[in-house]
Each structure stands twice: as C-alpha cells, then as structure tokens.
Amino acid sequence: MIKLTKLNNSEFYLNPDLIKSIGETPDTIIVLINADHLIVRETPKEIIDKIVGWRVRLLRLSRQQLDIDDPTAAPEEPTT
Which of 3, 21, 38, 66 is most buried, judged by most C-beta within 10 A? Predict the structure, then answer.
C-alpha cells in the first residue's frame, strides 16, 4: 500500500494494483480499475516513485522469505 494525500490534507493508503491511470490536469487524478476517481496532492512522478518503492520492498520481502524457506538458496549478492 502507498500513502497518499487528499486535497483536504487527509492521508489514506491505496493498493497500487487498483490504479488504472494517473493524470494531471493540473490536479493529479487517479483512475481506479472500478472507474472511481481520486484527486490527490502528490504529482504523478511522486506516485510512480512510491509504487516502484512499494514493489521493490515486496520483491525483497519475498526473496527473504524464499531464503528462509530454502536454506540451500544462494546468499544475496552485496549491493554497491
């Protein structure tokens, strides 16, 4: 889930898998797969960055879980 901010400054969490499109007119409008629209303070780039970060965290967590489940798995290579 990613944290976003409505125009009234209230924060909420959104599952990025529900996003169909993101537009800027100049407000940022998120269209969901069920055709609902959300207007948020974040720019499309900020939302995309949050989605990428969320997906990276999911991949890391799933890899850690695989390593726990399979003790013979190769260790993670260090990052530079």
Answer: 38
CA distance 12 to 80: 34
Question: How many domains, in total, are found in the chain?
Answer: 1
63/28 Cα distance (integer angstroms): 34
Between 3 and 80, where is the model more confident?
3
Side chain identity at 52, as an amino acid letter? Answer: V
Whether 74 maps to a domain, the answer reads no
Q: Which residues contact 12 (CB under 8 A, 6 or more apart)?
A: 3, 4, 5, 6
Q: What is the mean pLDDT of residues 42-66?
A: 93
The percentage of the chain sitting over the pLDDT mark of 70, rounded to a whole number, equals 81
